[in-house]
Amino acid sequence: MPDSPTVYSPSDILNIVKEHLKTSNIPVVIEGVYNMVGSHAYNGGIWWYDEIKSQFDNSKLKAMVPTGIRNQLNQNDVVQLSGTISKTINDYDGKIELLLRVSSLVGKQVNVISDEEMHRLQLLQKKAAVGSKPVDSLLESILYSDERKPRVALLYAENSVTDKDFQAGIQAASGRIDFKEFRKPFSDVAGFAQQINEIDQMGFDVVCVVRGGGSGLEVFDKPEMAMPLLNMATPTITAIGHDVDSPLACKVADRNVSTPSILGQFFKDLVEQTNEKKSRSQAALTEKIKRQYQQQLEAGQKQNKELQEKLTLITKTYDEAQKRQADAMLKLQNQLKEQSVAGIKQAKDFASQLNKMQETNRQLQNNLNKVSSQNTDAVRSLSSAQQQIKNLERQLQEKHSNTPLLVSFIIAVAIIVFLVAIIVYK
Fold first, then answer.
1. What is the pLDDT of residue 297?
2. Is the pLDDT reported for residue 163 higher than 60?
3. What is the domain-level CATH number for residue 25?
4. Do 148 and 185 share a domain, yes or no?
5. Are 413 and 389 spatial neighbours (Cβ–Cβ below 8 Å)?
């Protein structure tokens, strides 16, 4: 079994890296533009965290400056500061930072940066903050969509003549891109700025500033020429001078190509590459549609086969159900027929029994009539017997002393009662 790896926490890793970042604390002298960015002092007012910026670009270094040294400096002084460089790591996000721990002020030049140079630095800082618009992808997306042609403004100097390579590239791309030319003396800085602002309102997709090599290129290094380009809402391309030229206007543009010839080739290549991508895409789309159609066809055939099998099964099931239903109907008819015959027989039997019952009722009625007549006769006999008994009782009362007569009376009564009982219960 291999050994289990050692497990570290984020804080462990940060501490390990801190150990490796330790420097030798060798003093260095740093020269640059002093930028007072600190808002308050630390450690009871001892230290300030400011910046030292490069005089020629946007590079900057964080500096920990003692309050005593800071009080001797002003914003934008060019200074030489002695100190040591330490490398620190942020425990929160793991970022590594370089820090100049200032120990002494070697020298300074108070506000040696001119207003124009300061303006240049501010424009470069603004450009770094806003970034560049994606000129290539913007033009490519419009070309790819085929909904319309990209609209590109070409701003030349009033009397400039572009080389044949530039013209050849523009001509090759003009079938897919709508180019419109504008001319303005570039030496007229105010007129250039006005022209740029007007073009910015015309709805172009891209604005190109085109100027070949030669004298007069220094005008493009002026902040007044660069600022209108930086403030444009429309994406910008500059093609100014030669490969070695890089004026301020080129640095603030969204895209810079070194010469007008390369700009013409850029548009030509962009059109060709987009057409090639579209062709490949269309071929791929056609192939994809073919595959999808084939898949749909196969799926449809499979579905038709499954439906046919289901239809066959349903038909078979329906036929079997019809046969079972016919058998059930026949069986029901036979049962009904049998039940009908049995019902007729039962009806006949019932009628016969009814007739017998009626005959029995007639006989019972006759017997009832006879019994009723006999009862009537018995009632008459009883009444007669009761009358006779009353007569005898009267005679007995008259002759109560004659015992034989009493006995004869009792016997007579008993005989009469017996006779009446026989008559009633006969």
1. 77
2. yes
3. 2.40.50.140
4. yes
5. yes
